[in-house]
Amino acid sequence: MAEQRSIWREYAEALIIAAIFLRFTQVFVVQTFYIPSGSMENTLLVGDHLFVNRFIYGPKATEPEGKLLPFRGVQRGDIVVFRSPENPKIDVVKRCVGMPGDEIDVVDKALYINGKAVDDVSYAIHRDTTLFPDRPFYPDPRARMRDQFGPTTVPPGHFFCMGDNRDNSYDSRFWGPLPAHLVKGRALFIYWSYGGRTSDGQGETVVTKVRDLAETALGFFSQTRWERTFHLIR
């Protein structure tokens, strides 16, 4: 009997250690994330499930750890996952387009950094042909800010982030520069892409969660976008 209790204790200890290790990995190394909206289309689609590298944005290269390990800071063009400046309980994914000290300007939907037009045709899309004019007293100021923004300078310790789906993205044009301490990691690759109905994670009940799980299970093979599996995010 004592031997049997010992075996169960070993199993329990092993499970506890495994749980701690997995939690440590998720917090400090790799985190999973899924795309609930179309703000990053066509780079990321609704239903894409990602691995996020939380390890890369570690100590600065000037610090001892940064010299020994492959850490680096956020770079222009990185697709970053971060806590929302307006609601830190929510994680958001956008592309970093502006670094501290950069002057950001959007003129007739076109992005300019430090006075130079950005060649972003390989990833940025504009699906709305409407062009809102640069009029300070336009009835809908948020609409104007979508197409006409700045110039503004990114302050120290902040980044300017935008969605690749420029006409349908709630980003730094509206809530301001992103504080560096809210950055969680860099989007790494897609491990699964589901083309069926995807919840936005808001206002879910137990019933809706069970229903969503059942729908996903039934549509796993037919709705999975197999061609996006293990697709590197750039």
Uncertain runs:
24-28
CATH superfamily: Umud Fragment, subunit A
CATH architecture: Ribbon
Q: What is the 3D shape?
A: globular
The CATH topology: Umud Fragment, subunit A
The whole-number mean of residue pLDDT values reads 83
State the CATH class: Mainly Beta
> What is the element string, with H for helices and E for strands?
HEEHEEEEEHEEHEEHHE
Number of domains: 1
Largest sheet geometry: 8 strands, antiparallel
Percent range for β-strand residues: 25-35%
Tally of strands: 12
N-to-C span:
57 Å
Gyration radius from CA atoms, angstroms: 21 Å
Count every helix, treating DSSP H or I runs of 4 or more residues as helices.
Answer: 6
Structural class by sheet pairing and helices:
alpha+beta
Portion of residues within helices: 25-40%
Please describe what this structure looks like.
The protein has 234 residues and is an alpha+beta fold. The protein has a single domain, classed as Umud Fragment, subunit A (Ribbon). 26% of the residues lie in helices and 26% in strands. The protein contains six helices and twelve strands. The strands form two sheets. Strands 1, 2, 3, 4, 9, 10, 11 and 12 form an eight-stranded antiparallel beta sheet that branches. A four-stranded antiparallel beta sheet has the order 7-6-5-8. Strand 6 and strand 7 form a beta hairpin. The longest helix is centred in the first third of the chain and has 27 residues.
